[in-house]
Design a protein that fits this description.
It contains six helices and three strands. With 144 residues, the protein is mainly α.
Amino acid sequence: MDSQDIQFATDLRNVITRLIKKLRKKSVTGLQFSLTERSTLGLLLQHGQLLPSELAAMEKITNQSMSQILNHFLEDGLIIRTASETDKRKVIISLTELGRQKITQVRNERDEWLSDAIKETLNAEEKELISKAIGPLTKLVDYE
C-alpha cells in the first residue's frame, strides 16, 4: 500500500467520523441513549424481535452487558419481554410503541438535519457525486 492510499483512507475515515459525531449531536432524543443503546433499538426495529443473546452477538458485547441495556429499556417502557412459544426458557425481546417512536424520532431528527445541511451547502453536482458514492461506501461497510 502506498502513502496516497493511506492518506485517502485517513481522509475518508476523518470525514465520516466527523459526520457521524455531528449527526449524533443533532438529535436531542438520541443524546438520551449510548451508541450501543441506539444501535440495539435500531436492530429491534429492523428485525421485529430477537433473543437477548442474538442482540449481544450483533452488538459484539457480552450477554451480561446486553442484559443491563435491556433492563434499562424495560424500566423505561421501550421493550417487552415475551416467553418463546417453542422454548419457555427463552425470552424474546421486541419494541413497545414507545420504543418504536423513540428510535424513529432519533432517525427523523438526524435525517432532517442532514437534509437541511445538504440543501444549504451542496450544489446539484455535489449532490449527484455523493449520490453516486453511496453504493461504493455501502461496499466498504459490508467488507469484513
